[in-house]
Specification:
The complex is a heterodimer of chains A (about 180) and B (about 190). Chain A is an alpha+beta fold. Chain A is about 55% helix and about 20% strand. Chain A has 2 domains: about 1-75, no CATH class; about 85-175, Alpha-Beta Plaits (2-Layer Sandwich), CATH 3.30.70.1350. In chain A, a hairpin with a 6-residue loop joins strand 1 (about 85) and strand 2. In chain B, the strands form 2 sheets. In chain B, strands 3-4-5 form a 3-stranded mixed sheet. Chain B has a two-stranded antiparallel sheet with strand order 1-2. The model of chain B has no long low-confidence stretch (mean pLDDT about 90). In chain B, helix 2 crosses helix 3 (about 50-80). Classes of the chains: A alpha+beta (about 180), B alpha+beta (about 190). Chains A and B meet through helix 1, helix 2, helix 3, strand 2 and helix 4 of A and helix 1, helix 2, helix 3, helix 5 and strand 5 of B.
């Protein structure tokens, strides 16, 4: 999403610059009495002179503006995964954080240390991580869940993350190995 | 950077949606708004009535929009975590010359030092601020199961060496630890 936002910003900036640049050139050409470069002046003049709110093209543009605007707004307001989580540090000259994907990898690695775990997936959020582990058929998931809660919890404690951070563990029996 | 992008894109979305709703209500005749053709005619009359005033104003506004667009595009294209890096800084200036510091050389040396810390797989350092307390941004990739306290201690030793090299009492550092699947290089 951050990359999408940057690309959107880049494209909007370039579009604004291009539109303003073309407008400057067209206005200058018009003032100098020269023929237009890209924009058909008479067509623009005629269209704007006859434009009414209920013009079908304008209504479509307005509908598109509402849809795009709402999508943009919702996309920005939706909660987002953190990029990194702050680590407690007493030194005021140091700001230490752990990358969210790095945290996921670390917790996944810790979960995989359990001999009963075939595969594990971790999703780090702002206040907690969700660990999903797969065990072979016939293994008691509750027992593995208890062990993983302990080991993953210890791993999180070792990190000394700022604020409360709760790992949640779920275990399911799997036929296939998951990553 | 990300927070600023979210803010202005949300604001843009809100303005677009609001303008669209107002336009659709006007199209439906629910609110009394001047027709676009009338607004255009009035604007054209205003500009043509005082061309010596309005054309320069229009040019200035368009030029500002052009600059704004270029600035936004440049900012999005060049933004990096922690801000732009510092180039060459002047440490001292005497009658016979001056002493300068290439910040990228210091950052490169610190990166190489960090890579030698046990359990560190890769590292990169940038100097993003210089002054009485220079600021460094470091990304440190570690083994997935690395002892992060030991890595932090090792990073601290590197920062102490940077302080001595630059000749300052303290440096601010933003250290991002990133456990990875990668293995430590066999030869250091």
């Amino acid at each position: 999403m951050r990359l999408v936002n940057r690309l959107t910003g880049l494209l909007l900036g370039l579009a604004l610059a291009c539109a303003a640049g073309i407008a400057i050139i067209e206005v200058a050409l018009g003032l100098l009495g020269r023929p237009a470069w890209l924009v058909d002046r008479s067509l623009v003049h005629r269209s704007l002179s006859e434009l009414r709110w209920d013009h079908p093209t304008l209504v479509v543009i307005l509908l598109a503006a509402v849809v795009v605007g709402l999508l943009l707004l919702l996309a920005q307001l939706a909660p987002r995964r953190p990029r990194a989580l702050d680590v407690r540090d007493d030194d005021r000259h140091r700001q230490v954080s752990i990358d969210a994907r790095g945290l996921e990898e670390r917790l996944r690695h810790r979960a995989m240390d359990d001999s009963a775990v075939l595969g594990a997936r971790v999703r780090a959020r702002r206040r907690g991580a969700k660990v999903t582990a797969a065990v072979p058929p016939g293994t008691d998931p509750a027992e593995v869940r208890g062990r993983l809660r302990q080991s993953v919890g210890e791993s999180v404690e070792e990190l000394r993350l700022a604020g409360r951070y709760r790992p949640a563990v779920s275990v399911r029996q799997a036929k296939e190995r998951v990553n | 950077m990300d927070a600023a992008n979210r803010f202005w894109l949300a604001l843009l979305g809100l303005l677009l949606a609001a303008a669209g709703v107002v336009g659709l209500l006007a199209a439906a005749g629910a609110i009394p708004v001047e027709q676009p053709a009338d607004s255009y005619a009035r604007a054209a009359d205003t500009v043509l009535g005082r061309p010596d005033l309005w054309w320069p104003v229009i040019f200035v506004v368009l030029a500002l929009l052009l600059l704004l667009g270029l600035w936004i595009a440049w900012r999005e294209a060049s933004a990096r975590y922690g801000g732009p890096g510092v180039g060459t800084v002047q440490l001292d200036r005497g009658e016979r010359g001056r002493t300068t510091l290439d910040a990228s050389a210091v950052a490169g040396a610190a990166s190489a030092d960090l890579r030698r810390v046990p359990q560190v797989v890769d590292a990169s350092v940038r100097m993003v601020g210089y002054g009485p307390v220079p600021k460094l941004v470091a990304r440190v990739d570690t083994l997935a199961d690395a002892d992060l306290d030991a890595v932090r201690q090792g990073s601290e030793d590197v920062l102490q060496r940077v302080q001595r090299a630059v000749g300052v009492a303290e440096v601010n550092a933003d250290i991002r630890l990133r456990p990875t699947r990668r293995e430590a290089p066999r030869v250091r």
